[in-house]
Amino acid sequence: MPNYLLVDFGSTFTKLCAVDKDAEKIIGTSVHYTTVSEDISIGYNNALKLLYDKIGKKIEFDQVIACSSAAGGLKMAAIGLVEELTVEAAKRVCLGAGAKVDLVFSHHLTKNEVKKIIEEDIDIILLSGGSDGGNTENVIYNANLLGEMGVKVPIIYAGNKSAEDDIIDIIAKYEMNGFICDNVMPKINKLNPKCARKTIREIFLKQIIEAKGIKKIENEIDQVILPTPNAVLQAAKLLSEGYLNEKGLGDIVLVDIGGATTDMYSICYATSRSDVVVHGLEEPFAKRTVEGDLGMRYSAPGIVKSLSKQEIEFINNEKNIDIETEVNERYKNVHLLPHSERDKFIDQFLAEMCAYRAMNRHCGFIHEVITPMGKVFNQSGKDLTNVNYVIGTGGVLINSKNQKEILNQTTNILNDATQLRPKDPDFLVDQLYILAPMGLLAQKDPKLALKLMKENLKELN
Amino acid sequence: MYMLVGNKIIDYTLVNSGYNVINIGVLSSQEDFINAAIETDADLIMVSSLYGHGEIDCRGMRENALSQVLRIYYFMLGGNIVVGKQDFEETEAKIYRYGF
Q: Which phi and psi angles does A25 have, rounded to 5°?
């Protein structure tokens, strides 16, 4: 019986999912702490033993493939010229490749900014700037400074093609670890992520997982093939689009509330309306945003940071809590699991806030402009009003007793006509943590991956 | 929408006259023009406006551009740029004072 073992080396937990290809079902799942700092295979083998215990016997696997966000995940710096254009294009490409974009810089780099890139252990730099045939001065300056300051991490050049020859010379002159790609923004507002994303993945597989001590697991498995967030994005895309005669779910949103970040994914076009003018940089069909200040533990203080004194007081009175103390406790104790009803209550509230705020930053906006020709609608970002499903994943959501209320926070609960939030979606929950594994399986057997997702995502009534 | 049609006509005319046109579309702000000029290393920023508020929308544009990049752009403005019937020469003088 041909079996797949799909492995997610997470930052905290290693998760396994075993699939029977012929029976077309999930045989079992297991979880154990990730042990990348000692030896990644320890955590993997412990999880494997737990899996065998659950299934009741040891089974053989034809293919064992993995994704990883261990050892800090894939950390990237995005550099461009203008914030709203090539910087934003570079950032979107990095996020779509499954990276955490820890540093974002525009215009001329400063020496302090380059020092930050070195000090914060960035894995890959994506350098962009200038549309094709446009500004070359900025990227040449930045490449030179990166070279002069001895930056040795991989640098992907994905900017103005007119500067390509100069960039190649700079890479050679300073013996940089450089790669050349198509421009991520070849024309104004036109996004071109393909080449850069492919190169990011190749560097991840050849260099990054080796550097993080993850590659040695390939002595025991077939291959680590994707960063975990990219596996989730692939799963979401498949679930939305369908495959051959297996129908997809149509337009969807996915929210993943984690300990350090809240990730949001939307799979749909920017708009289906003909009466709007869509502004700004082209929106990707499969879009991912990452809110590094919204998380249940490492980033818990970020949830209340943007609240005013009045709002904090209101929350404390309403909920009978001290929200600042609660988030600081969670920040200091990142492995805290909620045992008491009070802890669960606070976690529920924080998760709802993460979902609400993350959608604020992900969804598009619309406003009316009055012209002599009548009313015109000006839209920026994506219109999510007609998505069919909002899908939730992440520990706090999966373990919540009120999952619907967390997912409801992504909809237009305040009836703000300017926000293009999902209007009336159905809700699904990734109760078995299968999204990342199914993203991996999608690379080998998309039809089976889609079928298993549709069968195993839990519907909320 | 009429302004989209006008935008396309101007684009088509300029391209056929041999210009390299970066068309940023309709309902664009000063920032949209300046950002596009920076990325594309443009020489001329041309604003076409139909809805009567072009003159107001372009106030401070030259200074805005200069504050962001150390280079001079040429600016042009045309269309139905003021509300109602106003003296052409007065309007023209105002636009020249803005640096257009």
A: -150, 165
